[in-house]
Here is the input.
Amino acid sequence: MHELSVVIEVVKTVEEFAKKNGVTRIDRLVLQIGELSSMIPAYIEECFPCAVDGTTLESTRLEIEILPGNARCRACGKTFNLLENKGACPACGVKDAEILSGREFMIKEIVAC
Amino acid sequence: METFKVMEIKKSVYEGNDRRAEVLRAELKEGKVFLLNLMSSPGSGKTTTVLRTIEALRDEMRIGVLEADIDSDVDAKTVSDAGTRVIQMHSGGMCHLTADMTRQGLECLGTDGLDFVILENIGNLICTAEADTGASRNAMILSVPEGDDKPLKYPMMFAMVDVLLINKIDAISFFDFDFEAVRERVTRLNPGIRIIPISAKTGEGVAEWAEWIRTEVREWKRA
Ligand SMILES: Nc1nc2c(ncn2[C@@H]2O[C@H](COP(=O)(O)OP(=O)(O)O)[C@@H](O)[C@H]2O)c(=O)[nH]1
Ligand SMILES: [Mg+2]
Ligand SMILES: [Zn+2]
Here is the structure.
């Protein structure tokens, strides 16, 4: 349910964009989702057909790019991937890092035809 | 031959809602209605705290309640007997409220003559943190039985609220709940946050909470 309400929001935004730019057919929609976002890509894919039903995106293909969840260790300054390292700095072991990226949920682009 | 054209949008999905939330916030300011968004996990004590808050402030503010919590047991009659307008919002299985849904709720409630509206949000710590409702201030309840490690699990929520109520302190002796650890974890995520321990059951700390609301309303009016 969480994903569906958000995907409906995405579809609205894309339709607005398409209208403003005179696009009538959208071949592909590319989203970017951070690893640390609460959005689960598989769920998004699952509810996409339902969200686009009856809209101009009905035959649009969905593509999802994953953005890494990177953080900087507050103790030693090393930058590392949070999930791969289970939150602990691989250099010094400290579990106190500032998140640099990975919370995004972006509409990257559309491929119009 | 069809020609394909890549058109960059580069827009955060939350942007549309964020924009609508800003508009609503400004309108509420204009109409002098202070909206407090109250969030927590199910069962942390939102409804009980809402009732306590009404009790503490009803003589000085005209209060309304938007009830969006699904398994809420607010007795609409008790609340309205206390001179408080309340509506139950039907969120249809949604897990969070958007600014548009909040606006609809406010329209349905009718804000004419109200100074202060409490929105009891849906019990959820994940996506309620990502969706700006347009509230003037955001509050969160963490209850003692939930444990002191919640800030580690749900950093977003703790990072975005103005105030954290730690509820059910009457039960603290039954749980391994480290107050200082919570304070330290939470202020690291959110240095400006105010933390108020309360018991919505016994009323302990409710005076401090009511005072926080008064101060915020005053500052919000001035800003
Ligand atoms: N011991 C104790 N129980 C509380 C307190 N506040 C709420 N409760 C109980 O916790 C349960 C859930 O409270 P409720 O207000 O409905 O939580 P909500 O789901 O967040 O709205 C109810 O049984 C309340 O009586 C408190 O301060 N101390
Ligand atoms: Mg409730
Ligand atoms: Zn380190």
